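Recall the central idea of this unit: under ordinary conditions, the amino acid sequence of a chain determines the structure it adopts. In this exercise we apply that idea directly, starting from the sequence alone.
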Amino acid sequence: MATLPKSHHEFWPRERAGYEDRRTVSYAPGDAHHLHVFLNWTAWETRLGSLVVAVGLIWAAGVVTSGHPSLGALWQTPGPLETAAIGLLIWLHAKWQRSVTLR
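Accordingly, the structure predicted from this sequence is:
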C-alpha cells in the first residue's frame, strides 16, 4: 500500500468543526424530577377537580334526559349540581395554589 508523502496536507482535516467522530448519548438519566412531578399534589388536585366536575355534569345530563326531560328534575334531584360545584371548588383551589408562592 502506498503512503502519502508528509508534505501532503489532508483537504478536510478531522478536527474541522462538525466533522468530529463523537458519539452522543441518546438518553442520559437525570435527577429525580419525574418523582417530584408524580408526587406534585397540586397537579393531582387539578385532575381530581376536573374529574369530579365531569362526573357531576354527566350525572346532571342523565337526570335531565331520563323520564320526561325537564330542567325541574335537575333542581329536584339532590346531588349532580352539588357534585359539579364541589369539583369546581377543588379545581379553583388547585389553580389558586399554583398562583401563590409561600415563603
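Residues 30 and 36 are 12 Å apart (CA to CA).
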